[in-house]
Design brief:
Strand content: under 5%
Number of strands: 7
Strand order of the largest sheet: 1-2-3
Largest sheet: 3 strands, antiparallel
Shape: globular
Distance between the termini: 52 Å
Number of helices: 18
Order of helices and strands: EEEHHHEEHHHHHHHHHHHEHHEHH
């Protein structure tokens, strides 16, 4: 038995595909497989299937889908004798108990982690990344609609682009630029505005002694960026161009190793046709693994499940303690004159950030960092800051629609970054998150350093998940709402699990928590959540 998500959803047994049911049933199956061996609350499953707007009969329908999926798993196990996957009902939710190695998505993630491991030699890294890329059969979760499925797809595309760039760099160091020249053009056709791919391709052409082609390629990319984004190539791409133009040797350790004649095999199956490039350039991109967690196999990069029993700062007397001084969100002043210049291209660049493996700060194109351990994350953190600053500038200019869209981009990138490395990426972004919450009318009554710490810790606190929902939904409150009190109210709602993921936040419970806060703090008589929102 094996599960395939990197393309149309398939469950195969004995080499033959089985009937996976209706698209809605496939979403339920995918939700379980993506978070294999991790409990998913029933409410979270409902949200993933119906996008936070379920019908009255949602639970009944979901139970029916789960029953049919159990039958599918029994059918898949029959040829081999013995159940290799089963759905269990636990206190924290439903769990698909299956070996992650039976799921192409989890194998893909494991292999990419191996390829990113700088302790490994380049040969094994290149082999692991090539194997990972070979698992792709087309658009992940193809044919499934909804916000959750879109978030998973976006996360997969980012990791795929990471893998291609790292693979190309390993091939450079091994002195095999022709392998890159053979494989990368297919990806540049799918992601025509992803500058990291163009960087490695131009470097490969230069290293292979095809300087004229490298210069021509740069000209094509420059014109494309101007037409599509109204922007010039980024700093790294310009640097690569100048290297080729001067005829300098490729940078040591990248494409500068001694060249060897190789006969590269296909990096991934050409048979799996990918969707048109325009399909990967959304007007309102979703992130950033985004509210949906892609479960990592064997603990690699895995996040603590939503049912974690780790200490929760929001549950230890934080709300309205008499000895704690009242805080307020102070929106830091930004240089709007210099921001306006960045803002012109920041929004358009943000649309591509979630499709590019190694994004950079706004004001330059998405560049390829040679330092694989440091550059990508540092560049992404800087871009997230730029997006939050751009949203603030839009707000000050009265461009509410642009401000909200840019905040959504920033929040999704923030979510991806704290998933990747909360200790490193959470603290530098927390102040920008606080300013964004302040503009939404959210205040707090705990010490600011504590709140900054909680906003950067999605593993042990629900603050990031709840804050992300508030910002993603574009709520702006007419009266100040205390974030710590809302979290406390949410966590003390009976039979509700403290969320660690956007997809696990129950919107109705969150609205009730906000209403309760306004009633206890301001004595309002508001009974409908929408009455608290600015028009």
């Amino acid at each position: 038995m094996d599960f395939r998500l990197l393309g149309e959803i398939e469950v195969r047994s004995g080499g033959r595909p089985l009937d996976v049911g209706t698209p809605r049933q496939q979403v339920v199956l995918a939700a379980l497989v993506v978070d294999a061996r991790r409990p998913i609350a029933l409410e979270a499953l409902v949200d993933r299937v119906w996008d936070h707007d379920p019908p009255a009969s949602a639970r009944t329908v979901l139970y029916a889908h789960l029953s049919r999926i159990r039958g599918l798993l029994r059918q898949a196990a029959a040829p081999g004798g013995g159940l290799t996957a089963r759905i269990e009902r636990r206190h924290a939710g439903y769990v698909l108990d299956v070996d992650p190695e039976l799921v192409d998505l989890h194998r893909f993630r494991r292999l990419v982690e191996q390829g990113a491991d700088r302790q490994r030699d380049d040969e094994s890294r290149a082999a692991a990344l090539a194997e990972a890329l070979g698992l792709w059969r087309g658009e992940p979760l193809a044919g499934l609609s909804g916000e959750w499925a879109a978030q998973i797809r976006a996360s997969c595309h980012r990791r795929r682009l990471d893998a291609v760039v790292w693979w190309a760099q390993a091939e450079f160091r091994l002195g095999r630029p022709t392998a890159v020249i053979s494989a990368v053009p297919d990806l540049t056709a799918e992601y025509p505005l992803a500058e990291p791919l163009e960087c490695v391709l131009i470097q490969a052409l230069h290293a292979a002694g095809r300087g004229a082609e490298a210069l021509d390629r740069y000209g094509v990319v420059r014109r494309r960026l101007a037409e599509e984004l109204g922007a010039d190539p980024g700093e790294e791409l310009r640097t690569v161009y100048q290297t080729v133009l001067r005829g300098d040797p490729p940078p040591p350790g990248e494409a500068g190793a001694a060249l060897r004649t190789v006969r590269p095999g296909p990096l991934w199956s050409r048979a799996a046709a990918s969707p048109p490039a325009v399909a990967h350039r959304w007007a309102d991109p979703v992130s950033v693994g985004s509210g949906a967690s892609v479960g990592a196999p064997s603990g690699v990069g895995a996040r603590t499940p939503a049912c974690t029993t780790a200490p929760r700062p929001g549950s230890t007397g934080t709300p309205s303690s008499p000895e704690v001084p009242l805080g307020h969100l102070d929106a830091a002043a930004i240089d709007t004159s210099s921001s306006r210049q960045r803002v012109r291209t920041t929004r358009r660049r943000a649309l591509l950030t979630f499709l590019v493996a190694v994004p950079a700060a706004a004001g330059s194109a998405h560049v390829l960092r040679r330092d694989e351990s440091d550059g990508p994350q540092a560049a992404s953190v800087e871009l997230a800051r730029e997006l939050f600053a751009a949203a603030e500038a839009f707000d000050q200019e009265g461009r509410a629609r642009d401000a909200r869209a840019t905040v959504m981009d920033a929040v999704r990138l923030w979510d991806e970054l704290v998933r990747l490395d909360p200790d490193r990426n959470g603290p530098p972004l927390a102040p920008a998150v606080l300013r964004a919450l302040g503009r939404a009318g959210v205040d707090f009554s705990v010490l600011r350093p504590a709140l900054l710490s909680w906003l950067g810790d999605p593993v042990h606190t629900p603050y990031p998940a709840i804050s992300q929902v508030i910002l993603l939904r574009g709520w702006r409150f007419t009266a100040p709402v205390l974030l710590d009190a809302v979290v406390w109210n949410y966590e003390h709602t009976p039979e509700v699990t403290s969320p660690r993921d956007v997809a696990d936040v129950h919107t109705d419970v969150l609205k009730a928590a906000v209403l309760e806060n306004t009633r206890t703090r301001h004595g309002t008589q508001v009974t409908e959540f929408d009455q608290l929102l600015k028009p």
